[in-house]
TrEMBL record:
<feature type="compositionally biased region" description="Basic and acidic residues">
    <location>
        <begin position="48"/>
        <end position="62"/>
    </location>
</feature>
<protein>
    <submittedName>
        <fullName>Small VCP/p97-interacting protein-like</fullName>
    </submittedName>
</protein>
<keyword id="KW-0564">Palmitate</keyword>
<dbReference type="Pfam" id="PF15811">
    <property type="entry name" value="SVIP"/>
</dbReference>
<feature type="compositionally biased region" description="Basic and acidic residues">
    <location>
        <begin position="21"/>
        <end position="40"/>
    </location>
</feature>
<feature type="region of interest" description="Disordered">
    <location>
        <begin position="1"/>
        <end position="80"/>
    </location>
</feature>
<keyword id="KW-0519">Myristate</keyword>
<dbReference type="InterPro" id="IPR031632">
    <property type="entry name" value="SVIP"/>
</dbReference>
<dbReference type="GO" id="GO:0005789">
    <property type="term" value="C:endoplasmic reticulum membrane"/>
</dbReference>
<keyword id="KW-0449">Lipoprotein</keyword>
<dbReference type="GO" id="GO:0010508">
    <property type="term" value="P:positive regulation of autophagy"/>
</dbReference>
<dbReference type="GO" id="GO:1904293">
    <property type="term" value="P:negative regulation of ERAD pathway"/>
</dbReference>
<feature type="compositionally biased region" description="Gly residues">
    <location>
        <begin position="70"/>
        <end position="80"/>
    </location>
</feature>
<dbReference type="GO" id="GO:1904153">
    <property type="term" value="P:negative regulation of retrograde protein transport, ER to cytosol"/>
</dbReference>
<dbReference type="GO" id="GO:1904240">
    <property type="term" value="P:negative regulation of VCP-NPL4-UFD1 AAA ATPase complex assembly"/>
</dbReference>
<dbReference type="InterPro" id="IPR055366">
    <property type="entry name" value="SVIP_metazoa"/>
</dbReference>
Length: 80
């Protein structure tokens, strides 16, 4: 009689063990960071050079904004 359902006999031993929620959350966060990093670097041969260019461009824009705000380096109007 006990052998009519053999698949239920070892069901508890075959169950997949899931990690605790904190470990699972950490693994998901790491996977998301990895996917995002791969996506941003797709098609770029040298991502470090691209970052340097972006920073340099931001610095030059910031300098031009500060010089324009202080009144120096821009066009000067003369009324005569």
């Amino acid at each position: 009689m006990g052998m009519c359902l053999p698949c239920l006999g070892g069901a508890e031993d075959d169950a997949a063990v899931t990690p605790d929620p904190e470990t699972r959350r950490r693994q998901l966060a790491e996977a998301a960071e990895k996917r995002q990093k791969e996506t941003t670097c797709r098609g770029i041969k040298n991502p470090e050079a691209l970052e340097r260019k972006k920073k340099k461009l931001e610095e030059t824009e910031k300098q031009s904004m500060t010089s324009a705000a202080s009144g120096g380096g821009g066009l000067k109007w003369q009324v005569g």
